[in-house]
């Protein structure tokens, strides 16, 4: 039995405890991923055909995801402690409070007119180069990260827990971490990371659109819906596009535009409409994610109490 009423206790744990201070399981998984990559990635990769590199990547996914997914299934089925274990697993998979703290740290630096510190702090949550960003660009990068990671670290995790319990959320969260490490379209990961990127796209296909719907319903519905329909197809990510376009429209701000990645400027399509983001919009984005998160939690509780939970 996978009870939807377990969602709210996990959200409360995240709110009260945030991420574990000593060691987070995802950090350990990241180190394990590096070891598996070192084991599978051929030294003379230029001499290896593309199909074989993709096969190595698929093998890496199986080796990294299957054992932990089965472990989560076993923990969730244990008599007496299975439900508690499922709550803890979901709590560890959700990163809402951590995301809010990182965003708040950037906002605080901007309010104190410490732009170098703000650049340093936003560099911890985005992959673009931040050394030359203006205040508005720092605010834009932070809002974009909050909206996108709100989908990845909050709503998608909740979705897969509701669908498949602890095994589902573990499978999703680890595949999302793999995508963050291997899902790059560069020389090293173009083929080796292909399966990780495609699998993460598949896992996020429905949750991303539910995230976009959440933003639209809890923000400026009319503008958010219009931006979602018109701008999402122009974005380079099929799942981040709906999330960020809907979120930007719901907040009545403009996102996207030029950003520097690995020393090269990338002109990204515009998202949303309205003014440039400010420091206050960082907190508005965090509040939007939080409203959505608690709305999901309350709805899950109502469903769980009304129908007795979901069966795996």
TrEMBL record:
InterPro entries: Cobalamin_biosynth_CobD/CbiB. The lineage of its organism: Bacteria, Pseudomonadati, Pseudomonadota, Betaproteobacteria, Neisseriales. It is found in: Cell membrane. It comes from the Bacteria. This is Cobalamin biosynthesis protein CobD. Its main location: membrane. NCBIfam families: cobal_cbiB. The chain crosses the membrane at residues 55-74, 81-100, 153-172, 293-310. Belongs to the CobD/CbiB family. It is a multi-pass membrane protein. The keyword Ribosomal protein does not apply. Pathway: Cofactor biosynthesis; adenosylcobalamin biosynthesis. HAMAP family: CobD_CbiB. GO terms for cellular component: plasma membrane. GO terms for molecular function: ABC-type vitamin B12 transporter activity; threonine-phosphate decarboxylase activity. Converts cobyric acid to cobinamide by the addition of aminopropanol on the F carboxylic group. Pfam families: CobD_Cbib. One of its GO terms (biological process) is cobalamin biosynthetic process. Keywords: Cell membrane, Cobalamin biosynthesis, Membrane, Transmembrane, Transmembrane helix. Coiled coil: none annotated.
């Amino acid at each position: 039995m996978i009870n939807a009423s377990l969602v709210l206790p996990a959200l409360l744990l995240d709110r009260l405890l945030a991420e574990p201070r000593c060691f987070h399981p995802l950090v350990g998984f990241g180190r394990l991923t590096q070891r598996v990559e070192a084991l599978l990635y051929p030294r003379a990769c230029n001499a290896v055909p593309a199909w074989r590199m993709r096969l190595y990547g698929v093998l890496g996914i199986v080796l990294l995801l299957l054992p932990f997914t089965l472990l989560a299934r076993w923990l969730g089925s244990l008599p007496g402690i299975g439900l508690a274990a499922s709550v803890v697993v979901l709590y560890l998979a959700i990163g809402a409070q951590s995301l809010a703290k990182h965003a708040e740290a950037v906002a605080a630096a901007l309010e104190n007119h410490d732009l170098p510190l703000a650049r340093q702090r936003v560099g911890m949550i985005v992959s673009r180069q931040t050394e030359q960003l203006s205040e508005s660009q720092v605010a834009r990068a932070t809002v974009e990260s909050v909206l996108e990671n709100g989908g990845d670290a909050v709503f998608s995790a909740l979705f897969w827990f509701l669908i498949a319990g602890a095994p589902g959320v573990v499978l999703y969260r680890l595949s999302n971490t793999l995508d963050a490490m291997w899902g790059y379209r560069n020389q090293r990961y173009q083929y080796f990371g292909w399966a990780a990127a495609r699998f993460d796209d598949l896992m996020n296909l429905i949750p991303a659109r539910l995230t976009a719907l959440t933003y639209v319903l809890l923000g400026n519905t009319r503008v958010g819906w219009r931006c979602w329909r018109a701008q999402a197809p122009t974005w380079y990510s099929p799942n981040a596009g709906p999330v960020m376009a809907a979120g930007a429209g719901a907040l009545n701000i403009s996102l996207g535009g030029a950003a520097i990645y690995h020393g090269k400027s990338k002109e990204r399509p515009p998202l949303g409409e309205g003014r440039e983001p400010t420091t206050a919009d960082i907190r508005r984005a965090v509040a939007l994610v939080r409203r959505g998160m608690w709305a999901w939690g309350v709805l899950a509780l109502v469903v769980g109490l009304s129908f007795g939970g979901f069966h795996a």
